[in-house]
Amino acid sequence: MKYNLILMVLLCYSVAGIAQLKVEKVYRKQNAYNRMTSSFPVFGASEDSQVSNAVNQFLQMNRLGLLVGKEKEHVFEKDWPQEDDFHGRQSIDCSIVENNKAFLSVELNEEFMGAYSSYSTDHENFDLRNGEVVYLPDLFTVDGYEIFKKMINNETKLSLQTAIASSYQGISEIYKEIQASNDESLIESLKSDLEMLYDEVSIYEDCIQTIEEYSFSKEFCLKKEELVVYRGRCSNHAMRALDAIGDFENTMKYSLIKPLLSEYGLNLLFDEKSGDFGTHYSDKIFYGHIAEKYPITLVLDKYSDEYVSGVYLYNNVGRTIQLSGQVNGNGLVLNEYNENDDNTGEFSLSVSDDNKSIVGVWTNAEGKSLKVELERRE
Fold it and tell me: What is the dihedral of CA 50, 221, 268, 10, to 10 degrees?
C-alpha cells in the first residue's frame, strides 16, 4: 500500500465516563508533489458502531470525497491536487477538541492553494447519541437563536468599535506630529501611516454595516462547558495586513445561554428533557435509492435561505459527486457535477415537514428521469 496506516488507541474520557468514540486508525501520508503531510482519523465505537459509522461517513464524504476502502491508491487521492494542477486543498489535519458521552467536536486545519495560499480552521460537531452533525440553530428556540445572534453580533461590534476608536486616536496623534515637524521625510512617512489607519477604519466601518448579514450557523465548536462561535476577518487577502483584529472568536458559557436553548439543546448540553426532537436536514446523512435499485447516500449543506450544496455517492462506488442548487421552501433543485465540473444530472427533491425523508426525481444529462427515495437513519 502507498500510504502508512498508523494504529492508535486514543481513549478519550469525560467527567461522565468513557466516551462513545475512540480513534482507532489515523491515515497519514505525505504528498510527493508539495511535500505536505495530511492526516485523517477513523473512529471506532466503544458502545454503538452505528454512531461511529455515521461520523466516519460524514467526515469522509465531506473532506476526502470518498469512503475509506474505496480508494485506488490512498485515501487523499480524490482531494489532493494532481501534479499538473497545484490549485485546491494541499493538506488536511484533524484533531479532537471534545469527546464525551454527549458530543464529539473535531477541528480540521486545512491549507489551500489558488492565486495565493490560504489556511482555514473548521469544526464539525457530532451528537454521539445518533452520530448526526449538530446544526447550531437546532440548539436554540427560534426566539432564543435570534437573541443569541444579537449577543454575538454585539460583542463583535464592540470589538470593531474599540478598534475604530483606537485608530482615530492614532490618527489624532499623527496629525499632532505632522503639525509639530519640519522634517519633510518624516512628514511623508507620517502621511503614509495616516493612510493606513484610515484604510483600517474603512475596513471596520464597512464590516459593522454588514455584520447582521453574516451567517455563523456552521462556524462553531462545542467544548466541555462553552460554545465558541467563529467568524472570518473583515479584510480580504490584499488588505489583511491592515486588519489588526483578524478572525473573531466569541465564547459563551452554556450556563449563560441555557435560557435560550431548545429542548434538544437542553438534552444535548445538560442531559435534560427527553423525546423525539425535530432537527434540521442540513448536514444530516440520508440513505436511499434511485429507481429503487441504485443505493445512494446523500449529505446536504443548506448554507442560506436560498442556496444549498452537498455531495452524494453511489454506495458501490464510494466516491462523491458534487451538488449545488437552490431552496424553495421544502423544495430543492440540485445540479450535479463530475470531477471535470461537467453538469451530469439534476435532482428535483422535496424534504418532508419533519426533515426525516426526501423524495423526488433524478434526471440524467440525456433527460431520463428516475424516482429518488431517501431517509435519515436514526
Answer: 50
